[in-house]
UniProtKB/TrEMBL annotation:
Signal peptide: none annotated. InterPro entries: IolE/XylAMocC-like, Xyl_isomerase-like_sf, Xyl_isomerase-like_TIM-brl. This is Sugar phosphate isomerase/epimerase. The keyword rRNA-binding does not apply. It comes from Mangrovimicrobium sediminis.
Amino acid sequence: MGTLGVHQMCALEIQPLELVRIAAEVGCQEVSVVSQPLDPANNIFPLVTADNIAALKQELAATGVGVANIEAFPIAPAAPVEAYRPALELGASLGARGATALLFDTEESRVVETLARFGEVAGEYGLRVGIEFMALSPRWNTLESMRDLVVKVGSSNVGIGIDLLHLVRSGGRPADVLALDPALFAYAQLCDGANLDVTTDYVEEAVGNRLAPGEGCFPVVDFLRALPAGAAVELEVPQPVTRPALERIGHAAHCAREQLAAAGR
């Protein structure tokens, strides 16, 4: 069975250090953490900072847990790509593989230029950019449209992160993932949902009310089978905080392993 990671979104009430400890306890090999807030003035994410990174490095070394991605770098009309260097450096010092970007711009030529530049800057730190599409976005809100955008960017250091929730809500199918050039793939995120509705009205679900893989009606197994060989897979299963983080993440990890086994991965 391949590597399974845990995203910080699974438990926003705990710090990255505790996320690493829980990941190790439930048998997950990686975490994705936040070193760059989407909105510094209204940040909801526990952050990796210069103040806590030493302890985090010690915990990673002690547990053997790795870092998959660091988040979250907004690509906006005035995106300060050069200003992202400190957050990228923090991620690189943790041994992260990737840096996740989210689109907040709709002007294609500007987005192509900004993404290409961000790919260059991230590459200086040994990080590959994963750009996520979501039905919530005003443009490039499907896998097909994001594929076309990334092809126009033309950088081997920019790929697509595929969150199963966003795939389903944007009308995508596992067959669309299977048809994607593996060179354009960055990572996959797992969860489940109570319906297959194609909608833009799912913010609450996205940030705090997802199901563990296999407990809803998403095509989890088919999605996993459609991923490229060796694909990085992580849990992004934010849920109401009615149970401890360890219990929620442990249950989601158990469910994910059942789905991975069923998919033959």
